[in-house]
Write a structure and sequence with these properties.
This is Dihydrodipicolinate synthase family protein. The protein is an alpha/beta fold and about 300 residues long. It has an 8-stranded parallel beta sheet with strand order 1-8-7-6-5-4-3-2. α4 runs parallel beside α6 and α9 packs antiparallel against α10.
Length: about 300
């Protein structure tokens, strides 16, 4: 199905069994909760989805299972995070064959490509698939920044349509709007600056804590879109301690623990990741417990 770059799109976690295989039953349970909350798309195989540990076959299984489960209710995106251009093209073509609606795409992995190499990488993949592409711009975690000048060149490819803006600099939303208008759609990618970015003009939110709290996340988006800013702020202020679990090297473990608390997942991760323990686990559980104790009553955000 076609994609509109707007709304809340969960970067979903990948569920595993105790024997380290894909847990599609729990995965689909979470996807169902996302759909019931009113999300606008599903993003597979991102950082939060433990992309670096998934085989190509597992990514294809997840894509097909999700496309089947959502049944054209929302678009399904798969992340492209590869070490070579050849592998990225192959992954993009597999995604298209498996029914994905669009791609989220990181710069080359491991090798710190220069500006010209990064632009060539994105353009080459774009020229070998018909799927729309959202460039994942996260220099904080991946050490490569896609600058506005680089986007000037990238936007010569019609299929490069959006950016997952994860620089942590909210003013970058305004820079992008000033430079490109509506040609480059902006999906904010950092939970702790999401509302600020939406208010400055981002069209949507690739979210993390939505995996455990889908209704609250969608409510914030819909309220601010309807101009009910103060209500959105109040929920966002409650949410912030939980959202901060997303800007941490252990974000996968943190969010999976939150999913357990809300009945939407397990904390099983794929090694070398290990479940949280000791004081670190105690702290995260305390944040989650406090959030659940003070969980807000939501307005009828689906009918604003």
């Amino acid at each position: 199905m076609s994609i509109q770059w707007k709304g809340v799109m969960p970067a979903v976690t990948t569920k595993f069994t105790d024997s380290d295989s894909l847990d599609l039953q729990m995965f689909e349970h979470n996807i169902t909760a996302q759909l019931e909350a009113g999300v606008h798309g599903i993003v597979l195989g991102g950082t939060l989805g433990e992309a670096s540990t998934l085989s190509h076959d597992e990514k294809r299984i997840l894509t097909r299972a999700t496309v089947s489960h959502v049944d054209n209710k929302v678009p399904v995106l798969i992340n492209i995070a590869e070490q070579s251009t050849k592998s990225a093209i192959q992954a993009a073509q597999h995604a298209e064959a498996d029914g994905a609606s669009a791609l989220m795409m990181l710069p080359p992995m491991r090798y710190k490509s220069g500006d010209r190499e990064t632009v060539t990488y994105f353009k080459t993949v774009a020229n070998n698939t018909s799927l729309p592409i959202m460039v994942y711009n996260n220099p904080v975690d991946y050490n490569i920044e896609v600058t506005l000048d680089m986007f000037e060149e990238l936007l010569k490819c019609d299929t490069i349509e959006a950016v997952k803006e994860s620089t942590r600099d909210v003013s970058n939303v305004t820079r992008i709007k000033n430079r490109f208008g509506d040609r480059l759609k902006i999906m904010t990618g950092v939970d702790t600056v999401a509302l600020e970015s939406l208010l400055m003009g981002a069209e949507g939110w690739i979210a993390g804590l939505v995996c455990a709290f889908p209704a609250e996340t969608v409510a914030i988006y819909e309220l601010q879109k309807a101009g009910r800013i103060q209500e959105a702020i109040e929920i966002y202020r409650w949410f912030l301690p939980l959202l901060e679990l997303d800007i941490n090297p252990k974000l996968v473990q943190n969010i999976k623990l939150a999913e357990v608390a809300t009945g939407l997942g397990t904390e099983t991760v794929r090694e070398p990741r290990l479940p949280l323990h000791g004081e670190e686990r105690k702290h995260v559980l305390n944040v989650i417990e406090n959030g659940l104790k003070t969980r807000p009553t939501l307005p009828d955000y689906k009918n604003l």
